[in-house]
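ugh finaly. both done.
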Amino acid sequence: MKRRAVFLDRDGVINRAIVRGGKPYAPQWLDALEILPGVPEALQRLRSAGFLNVIVTNQPDVGSGSVPQSAVEGIHAHLRNKLPIDSVKVCYHTEMQNCLCRKPKPGMILDAARELHIDLGKSWLVGDRWRDVEAAQAAGCQALFIDYAYSERVPEKPYVAVNSLAEAAQFILRSGS
């Protein structure tokens, strides 16, 4: 039997993104990580309703050599310890490496769906960048977009705009899918 999942971008959805010049950046070290308000409760509500919580995150600072992979893995270990997270998928590549896993390509989502027996048509992705929405669309998931008005392009419809993961969880649970 296939399962339902909520795929979650990390920075800006689970934890506060560091915004410089209108662009979001990942915290580089655990001491800079701040879990956003309402995230633990939202993830627990989703899990209680039968959804898997799967982080799918681009972390190109590792690929570019500006952040050690161990720092990112430490952040993920901390998140898995503090939050009801079922899986973490990470793309460490830079955009120029043109891999299949880096969002907006759906590779991480498709890999998780195969590994965890996820029904993509009954699953959701919550993100805060156009790349997240496009990855969801390419994978066949429904997309929820937290719009922080970053200085970058906005995603193309279809997506549902929400203000937070807590609001996204309410929408998902009300939708009944």
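ok and the 2nd:
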Amino acid sequence: METFDTIVSTRRSVRKYQAKKVDRELIAQCVEAARMAPSAENVQPWRFIVIDDEAVKHEFCKSAFSGIYSYMKWAEKAPVIVVLVAKLDMLANRIGKQIQGTNYYLLDMGISGEHFVLKAHELGLGSCWIGWFHAKKTRKFFKLPSGHKAVSLISMGYPEKPVTRERELRQLDEILYFNEYR
């Protein structure tokens, strides 16, 4: 397996897409990869709302990217927007947060979402995590029930041009410590 060299190290955020529809079977493969993610207490909090209808996407983007979130309007040009919704669990998410001070559902959703974008990249699709959106309007738009929270979005489609741009990363010796933190 060469997952790191072929997928992890070459994936980049894509913000410009071809005007080409993404087959729902490919989207389902990404969700299947996301479904395989580990989660605290195995609660599997993830739910995925796929927006691939142009009219729905337009209305959603008018709401989710309004006001201070208008910078993200570029996402409407993506053929697909996926809303990552967490179904909050009493034990792992409320008690765990009180004891540990950690929102485990956010970790779970992050791992699941990363599985999603890596699978998309493997399938030749580009994607971009979006955390800057109007969460309350998203909740209202989809009429999310109590105990459910929209935590992020992922835009997805075929990249407008090949994804080859290198990015600058911190050196390993700047982030790796053994047995102490310096």
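summary for the 2nd one i guess: The two ends are 34 Å apart (CA to CA).
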